[in-house]
Each structure stands twice: as C-alpha cells, then as structure tokens.
Write a sequence for this structure.
C-alpha cells in the first residue's frame, strides 16, 4: 500500500494539472506585491480592527491567505482530486482494479492520500519560493511567521483536497461532482474569516475547517505550538474522517 | 420532409424533458438562501465591517452593501446551473464514450447541440429571473427617500448579472464542443468564471489604479450594479435580450463547429 501510494504520488506529480497548479501559484506569488504596493487607508484600518495590528506584514498575510491561498486551494483541490476513482470507472479500468488485491475503499483512500500529498508538495513549494521572492520585494516581510502560518494553512489545503475527492465519489458523476466540490469549497473559503470580522461569531466559525487553517493570522506576533498545533490536529482528524466517508461511499461502486 | 420535421420536433421535446430542472430548482433555492442569509447577516455585522465595504466599494448605505453581495449570489447560482448543464451537452457524453451513440441518430449535429444547449440556457435564465426578483424583494427593508437603491434597479441589475452569465456560457458552449475531458472544461470554466470578479478585487486593494479612469471603473467593477441603480432598471433587461441574441448566434456557431469537426 505504501509503495502504491508512493508510485501514485510520483505519477500524479508529473500530470499536466500539477503544472497548471504550479503556474497559478506562481501567478499569485508574482502579482501579490503589485496589489500590496499602495493599500488604501480603509484597508489598513480594517487590519487594525480585525487582527489588532496595522503593520504592512499583517496586511500582506491577510491578502496572501484570503485573496490568494484560500481561493487557490479551493480551486486546485477540485482540479487535483478531479480524477480520483471516477476516471478509472469512466475509462473502464475499474474491472481490472477489481482483480487486484486491493479493495475499492482502500484504492480510494490511497489515491486521495497521494493527491493530498501532491497538494501539500505544490503548496509548500510555493511558500518556499514565496519566502525568497517576498524577502526581496515586500517591505517588512517576516519569513518565520510566514512559514509558521503556512505550516497550519497547508492542512486546510490537504483537507480541501480530501473533501473534493469525497464529494466527487459521493455525487458519482465527474462534471456535477467537480461543481459541487467547487461550490462547497468556495462557500467554506468565503466564510473563513467571519470570526475575525465579527468576534461574537469566532467560536461558531470554528466548525468551518478553513477557518481553523487561518487562525494564525490573529496571532502573528506570538506564533508557536500552542497556536498552531490544535487546529492542525483538528484538520488532520477532519481529513481522515472525510477520506473515511469517501471510502465508505465507494464500497459498492459498480464498474 | 414533414415527417423528418416532426421527428426533429419530437427529438427537441425529448431533450427538453431532460433539461436540468432539478438542478435549477436546487440552485434557485440555494440563491434565495444566500440572499436571505445576506439579509440576516449584514445587519448583524459590526458597523466597522459595513463601513469597510461601504468605503471600499463606494456604496452609500447598508442596502447597497447587501445588494452588492446579493448580486454575487445571482452570478454564482446561475453560472452553476449553466455549467452543470453545459458539461452534459457534449463533454461528459464524450468522456463517457456515449457521444458516438448519441450522434448516430438521424439528427444533424447542429440540431443535437441546439436541442441540448437551449434548455440549459433557458434554465439559467429562469434561475437568473427568480434571483433577480429575490434581489428586488431584498431592497424592501432599505427603501426610503434617501436610499441609494430601488426594487426596479435591483431587478435590472440581477438581469444584467444573468446576461453576463449567458454570454460566458455561450462562449464556453462553443469551446466545449472541442474538449475531451470534463476536467479541462472545468479548468476553463473556472478561469472564465473568475474574470468578472478580478477587477473588483483589484479595486478593493488598489483603488489608485482606477483613479482618473471613470469609464474603466464603471464597466469593470461589479459595484457598478449598485452605483447605477436607476440605469440598471432599463439596462438590465436590454442586456439580457442582447445576451439571448448572442446565445442564438453562439449556439449556431457551436453546432456548425460540431458538424464540421465530425469529432467524437
């Protein structure tokens, strides 16, 4: 199983859609300094209200997370997970897989985990490239908090990938499945910061997994294990649960 | 000839029966829930959030802020129905190896495409109409002598959003004729879907780029649907009619492309 997952991960990394993911991350990285160049006063005031800081780095992190990374993980999760299991069924490969010593739920779990691995790889590579680029182009950029925040948000990206794969097999058809995944993820992403906008809803917003992934933005001055580990663990558990739901739903899938 | 016409009419009726009615119903309900959600959420948001959106998008009052978000619901729900239906026209049948079978019937490829595409566009328009009506209803608590919005303006703006979606779907329906995988279709649809939203995001963070360019701002920033409320009351229906005419031409072009390509 581990060997299969490794081989699938390596094969997935060579797919065309991964290059699309790389291109779109590169576009986000290159365009952000332009958007950040002259923030209007109302945006700086909003940072002070929502995150308790009006320094340029807080604004940068908000834009990087909300405008770029959150939207990209929603889109890329659907794109990367778009072929899990249903492509095998639609291309008639499923009967061949049935002859292998691996059940469909196991197959789904392995494929989804390797897709999550691809998402994490591309995501973290983008953050590392971002450190190099932003250190040279963004005033007040702080690599330490940037990477610490990414170490939590990458779990939101992994969860998004698992959710997209599971919704795809639950819906059962590729086109509608992709769209339902997209709608669900954009709804979660759209509400990710609502606990910051209205502190009265902060506790309730924790039911949204993407909100868990952006919690570091409220603690950029004191990021440490106490801030990062609990939401990361919650996201890892939610990812495992989501994959289990997907595996359960494919147990009776017919070729 | 007469019997061939009858048979084609029967075929069109058969395709009409498999229009995405259920998905249109779900999208309509989802849109109404979103619009109702905006109606409930925004008045309960802290004043700083409302002021931020008001200042950032040059909106005069809470009604304008609520409507600006309502129009996004019209856009995404109408687009959702249309995309879902369009994928089922050629791309998914081709991917599932059913297109050859479907095109083997004595129905010209152009008629096949039109018979499958028009019900999708009709459902999209219907969802747009219903949600535009919901936007008009959403203005009622905010109407008054100093209000920046009106029910007729909101209805027109909802129809204008629907028109934008119809133009996007028409363009996609032509391109989808040549696509083999729903994944590629989705990628393309995603990029097309984001295009109308990008200038508004830039306007939020870099309003200086729009300074001194009133025409560019008026055309590209989606808050224009609120800014020009009175104009939208008549411009929205006109835009919808123009979009339907554009769809007429586009579906024919797509049909010719499918016929010419002979590609299954």
């Amino acid at each position: 199983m581990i060997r299969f997952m490794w081989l699938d991960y390596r094969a997935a990394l060579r797919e065309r859609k991964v290059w699309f993911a790389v291109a779109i991350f590169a576009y986000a990285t290159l365009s952000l300094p332009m958007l950040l160049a002259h923030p209007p006063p109302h945006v700086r005031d909003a940072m002070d209200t929502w995150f308790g800081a009006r320094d340029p780095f807080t604004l940068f992190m908000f834009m990087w997370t909300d405008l770029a990374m959150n939207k990209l993980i929603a889109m890329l999760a659907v794109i990367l997970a778009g072929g899990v299991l249903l492509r095998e069924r639609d291309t008639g490969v499923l009967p061949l897989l049935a002859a292998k010593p691996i059940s469909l739920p196991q197959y789904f779990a392995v494929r989804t985990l390797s897709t999550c691995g691809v998402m994490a790889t591309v995501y973290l590579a983008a953050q590392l490239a971002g450190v190099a680029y932003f250190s040279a182009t963004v005033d007040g950029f702080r690599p330490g908090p940037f990477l610490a925040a990414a170490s939590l948000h990458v779990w939101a990206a992994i969860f998004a990938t698992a959710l997209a794969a599971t919704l795809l097999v639950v819906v059962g058809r590729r086109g509608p499945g992709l769209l339902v995944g997209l709608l669900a993820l954009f709804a979660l992403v759209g509400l990710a910061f609502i606990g910051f906008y209205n502190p009265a809803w902060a506790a309730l917003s924790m039911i949204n997994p993407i909100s868990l992934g952006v919690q570091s933005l409220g603690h950029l001055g004191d990021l440490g294990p106490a801030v990062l580990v609990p939401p990361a663990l919650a996201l890892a558990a939610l990812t495992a649960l989501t994959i289990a739901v997907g595996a359960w739903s494919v147990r009776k899938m017919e070729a | 000839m007469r019997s061939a016409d009858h048979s084609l009419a029967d075929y069109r009726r058969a395709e009409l029966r498999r229009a995405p009615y259920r998905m249109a119903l779900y999208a309509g309900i989802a849109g109404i829930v979103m619009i109702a959600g905006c109606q409930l959420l925004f008045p309960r948001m802290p004043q700083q959030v409302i002021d931020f959106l008001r200042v950032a998008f040059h909106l005069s009052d809470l009604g304008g802020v609520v409507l600006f978000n309502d129009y996004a619901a019209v856009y995404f729900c109408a687009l959702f129905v249309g995309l879902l239906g369009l994928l089922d026209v050629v791309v998914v049948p081709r991917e599932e190896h059913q297109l050859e079978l479907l095109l083997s019937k004595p129905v010209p490829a152009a008629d096949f495409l039109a018979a499958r595409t028009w019900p999708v566009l009709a459902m999209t328009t219907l969802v747009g109409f219903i949600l535009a009506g919901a936007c008009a209803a959403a203005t009622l608590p905010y109407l008054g002598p100093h209000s920046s919005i009106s029910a007729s303006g909101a209805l027109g703006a909802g129809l204008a959003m629907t028109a934008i979606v119809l133009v996007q779907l028409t363009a996609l329906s032509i391109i989808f004729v040549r696509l083999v995988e729903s994944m590629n279709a989705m990628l393309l649809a995603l990029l097309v879907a984001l295009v109308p939203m990008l200038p508004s995001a830039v306007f939020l963070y870099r309003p200086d780029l729009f300074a001194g360019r009133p025409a560019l701002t008026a055309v590209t920033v989606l808050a224009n649907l609120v800014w020009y409320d009175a104009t939208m009351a008549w411009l929205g229906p006109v835009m919808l009619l123009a979009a339907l005419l554009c769809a007429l031409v586009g579906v024919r072009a797509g049909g010719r492309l499918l016929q010419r390509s002979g590609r299954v």
Remarks:
- Residues 2-261 of chain B form one domain.
- The mean pLDDT of chain B is 88.
